[in-house]
Amino acid sequence: MEGQLVSVIIPIFKAEDFIAETLHSVLRQTYTNLEILLIDDGSPDQSIKVCRQFNDPRIKIIQQANRGLAGARNTGIRNATGEYIALIDADDLWTEDKIEKHVRHLESSPTLGISFSYSKLIDQNSKPTGLKQIPKRITGITPPYILSRNPIGNGSSPVFKRQVFQDIGFFDNIHGVEEKFYFDESFKRAEDVECWLRIEMETSWKCEGIPELLTLYRIHPGGLSASLLKQYEYLERIITKYTKAYPEIFVSSSSLARAYYQRYIARRAISLRDSKLALEMMHKAIASDKRIFTEEPVKTLVTMGATYFLCLVPIKLYDHLEQAARNLFTKKVQPKSN
């Protein structure tokens, strides 16, 4: 399918195990009018060597010293020439019709600036985990809803009209030369949520979702609890920043946003088998705002139960019971139709 040029931006850092599969998923798009900007963010591994094995004129490699994910995306946006901009992380995947459907969606309304999709979670081997990111709301999205629930889900889900980024761009001299920035590079974590909020607060562009599983978001096993705490630190910064700047909009929702973030960290801590951190964050979530019980009772109660179970039983037994529960859930729940 031909149409307006779409710039696909792929930040690359330590992605040699996944970048080939990611590139294949982009090159196989039914929408073919693409430029694919691979931003080598000072990657120390063989990622770029893998990329150079692809012989496609749509691919362009841009190399820079390491600036982090936000910095790599900013470089990509500066160099993009398409009317639309799509982001995908170097370990995630797209369905073949993703770009085609997002372009059609964006062209359906002159005020629609961000189109996102549901996401299916995959593991290290690209196998579905049985989990999905399906927000309760994909239209009528408000700033407080973005702050507390981030319906876009992940950075590989949205496609933008180019003008959206032009409208939030700001100039600064961070790396020795004045440049235009779009993602705030002071946020080393949660830069997505900060950017989506800035678009919502500073522009009139609408954000809507497509109710289809078009993004495959990879979940990596292992990790460090310290990294989770760092992520939570930046999420707290976002709550503080926007509550202070727009108190009339965010004060009433800031405690609920904090509770959801704390519950999220608890769930991640459970996956790392860090019972102490999971228990601490789950108790904080309940203390922050009990509306998480009324708004999402099942997810909250399941997280609570898993937290206490992890604290009480041996790890091997917990692993076995978790897998059994997941298998049962997968059998009972039918996938949503597209």
List the helices and strands and how they pair.
Layout: E1 6-12, H1 19-27, E2 34-41, H2 47-51, E3 59-64, H3 68-79, E4 84-87, E5 93-94, H4 98-107, E6 112-122, E7 128-133, H5 143-149, E8 159-161, H6 162-168, E9 170-173, E10 178-181, H7 191-202, E11 206-218, H8 225-245, H9 247-271, H10 275-288, H11 291-295, H12 297-312, H13 315-332
3D architecture notes:
- This protein has 338 residues and is α/β, with parallel strands linked by helices.
- The protein has two domains: 213 residues, Spore Coat Polysaccharide Biosynthesis Protein SpsA, Chain A (Alpha-Beta Complex), CATH 3.90.550; 108 residues, no CATH class.
- It is built from 13 helices and eleven strands.
- Strands 1, 2, 3, 4, 5, 6, 7, 8 and 11 form a nine-stranded mixed sheet that branches. A two-stranded antiparallel sheet has the order 9-10.
- β2, α2 and β3 form a beta-alpha-beta unit.
- α5 packs parallel to α9 and α9 packs parallel to α12.
- It starts with 5 loop residues before the first strand and ends in a 6-residue tail after the last helix.
- Ends apart, CA distance between termini: 21 Å
Q: Please tell me the CATH architecture of the largest domain by its name.
A: Alpha-Beta Complex
What is the fold named in CATH at topology level of the largest domain?
A: Spore Coat Polysaccharide Biosynthesis Protein SpsA, Chain A
Strand-pairing-aware structural class: alpha/beta
Please tell me what the overall shape is: globular
What is the residue-averaged pLDDT? 92
Main sheet summary: 9 strands, mixed
Helix residue percentage? 40-55%
CATH class of the largest domain: Alpha Beta
**Fourth-level CATH superfamily of the largest domain:** Spore Coat Polysaccharide Biosynthesis Protein SpsA, Chain A
Radius of gyration: 20 Å
Query: Regions with pLDDT < 50 over 5+ consecutive residues?
Result: 332-338
The number of distinct β-strands equals 11
- What is the number of helical segments per DSSP (H or I, 4+ residues)? 13
Strand content: 15-25%
- The domain tally reads 2
Order of helices and strands: EHEHEHEEHEEHEHEEHEHHHHHH
